[in-house]
Amino acid sequence: MSLHCDLQIHVNGQQTFFLDEKIVSAYSGRLRKIIRQEKRRTQIKSSGIEVDNFPGGSDGFELVLRFCYNRGEIGITVSNVSLLHCSAVFLGMSEKVAASNLMPQTEKFLEDMFYWSWNDVIASLKSCETFLSYADSVGLLPKLVCALLAKIAQNSDLNLINSSSSSSSSPEMASRFRFSSSAKTTPDSKSPSRSSKAWWFDDLTILSPLIIEMVVKSLGAHGSENNSLTLTRFLLHYLKTVSQRKGNTTEFTASTKSDYIGLTDTVVHGVILVGKTAFSCRGLLRVLRIVSGFGISKDCRVGLERLIGGMLDQATLDDLLVSGHDRGVYDVNLVVRLIRVFVNGDGRSAQKIKKVARLVDKYLGEIAPDQNLKMSKFLGVAESLPDAARDCYDGVYRAIDTFLELNVQAVESPSIVNHQNRSIIWNNFPNVFG
User: CB 3.0-4.6 Å disulfide test: which of 8, 160, 208, 375 passes with 48?
Assistant: First the structure.
């Protein structure tokens, strides 16, 4: 770069650049205007110019400077075109300011995005994550999402175009989407196995939840509008992969979880729609485990639990052993809610109710050794079934015996607590000791 530096520019409060005023103002209409305004008010040599909310921060600004100091030339690739384009728009680097300026160069490069390879489209989308809102505001992000969906539609038998999504893109973009997705091949396109509808699932897991949410919205399938089983399975795969990468979803901050709640609610709406036809009781409980780690709305949780509870007679003991909260080993409150849904449902045969009762007694035996389990919760599980559900109380008795034996060891006067607990149990289950 030139050794002549008569201009200081502070970018996003991160870094200060010492520049040649003539070089940068020759390409940037915005900086040229700011410099003129500052010269009228004060000496900018000492104070410099503040540039806030610059897309890509200091890295993006440095990339633009390479263009300026290299006489309007820079290597444009799928990995940097998004940043260069957004930076050029921000700085007003149009053809009116300079011939063959950065903005027209990036626009020309982006014209061919529908003919990029699958990996190129993903790489360009991925590069937008640090300046996502700005890329969206200038219309770049919707175009890249449209190109992505065109690739998916092109290499699968899925009809991903939803009529309600037309409002999210211009008529020109919708036309290009239809053209590209109807084509059999495109230059340098990825050639996945058409035998699998899920060939694109893994590749998209590297993208941020906000980009994935935009993909879902572009399909007109966000939230309660989701009626696609394939999309639902993809979102489950995405959330599960993110969870595994982060190790423990409970470590997510509240702000991080808020980025995912739109996706989790979309998943639940899709699951509820297809219900028993596509998911077993075990599968639904797995869905609940996945989405609970990220957070879901109350209405979605109630709807999913109602669906699971209605199929409780298909569950096994392992299915019910969901990790608990509030210091407990297992989520006992969840199981109580599921049992109540089942018991209060219509058309439950005596055979199914007795089957659930045997399952509940096994569950009682499993949770009984938990020394953090309160008596009220233990009894809540046992009392959740009607009297007619059990032919005998042997399973309950064994669970109670284990609970009393292990839990009274943690207090100072076990004999007193043992007597008190047995009195409580006697009042609630006289048949156990009768």
Answer: 8
